[in-house]
């Protein structure tokens, strides 16, 4: 299982609470690669809020005694004390992000952005969510100066984007382009695959220019840049594992030329793979 996590401190978990107005304790990503299943059962729930976002595949939740199978684009908000039962299975190809945070029960920001007492929300598939989750995880890992304030802003931005897009998805889901949904699924399953967008469109009988325009409109970036973003995010995760050489990370993310990979990585993240690895090892 691919596991990437970040903690404010190593005591931060589902038991953590804060008296601050808004505080992020920990965040992470789970993606099953070989393990057949992963399950969490907390009959008494957590002391804080937990937001779980299904970025790809499917995830199983038992909420209020009823089993719910949620697909990508769905999220679950567990309130403090809500029983938590959720299960991931390899056959469903789940790719899930999560975050634990504290805020006051009558927090005005939550209510203003559409987060009520219910647990399940359809917020759609949006690349901006992934960037924010990855940013939150990295902020928790590196703990730069003023990280508490930065985490608060990023968490609120995530909730705001999801709230706005939830309204949009409820109105336009019927018209959501299936070609884009299929592309997103394939890009996430095999981001390292060597193909051109023109070939991708031709294999599916799509008009190349229409596909580019439609994808960019719905996702906010071009298909090629979206694939690069996935690859570079995966590269960051792999670089935190010292067992992988940089040349191996390049190959695993679809780049035969390690020098080209290193230049592209630095262009995206501002650090070379070696510098990023050194910084991650030092914890800041």
TrEMBL record:
<keyword id="KW-0804">Transcription</keyword>
<dbReference type="GO" id="GO:0003700">
    <property type="term" value="F:DNA-binding transcription factor activity"/>
</dbReference>
<dbReference type="InterPro" id="IPR020449">
    <property type="entry name" value="Tscrpt_reg_AraC-type_HTH"/>
</dbReference>
<dbReference type="InterPro" id="IPR003313">
    <property type="entry name" value="AraC-bd"/>
</dbReference>
<protein>
    <submittedName>
        <fullName>AraC-type DNA-binding protein</fullName>
    </submittedName>
</protein>
<dbReference type="Pfam" id="PF02311">
    <property type="entry name" value="AraC_binding"/>
</dbReference>
<dbReference type="InterPro" id="IPR009057">
    <property type="entry name" value="Homeodomain-like_sf"/>
</dbReference>
<dbReference type="Pfam" id="PF12833">
    <property type="entry name" value="HTH_18"/>
</dbReference>
<keyword id="KW-0238">DNA-binding</keyword>
<dbReference type="InterPro" id="IPR037923">
    <property type="entry name" value="HTH-like"/>
</dbReference>
<dbReference type="GO" id="GO:0043565">
    <property type="term" value="F:sequence-specific DNA binding"/>
</dbReference>
<keyword id="KW-0805">Transcription regulation</keyword>
<feature type="domain" description="HTH araC/xylS-type">
    <location>
        <begin position="181"/>
        <end position="279"/>
    </location>
</feature>
<dbReference type="InterPro" id="IPR018062">
    <property type="entry name" value="HTH_AraC-typ_CS"/>
</dbReference>
<dbReference type="InterPro" id="IPR018060">
    <property type="entry name" value="HTH_AraC"/>
</dbReference>
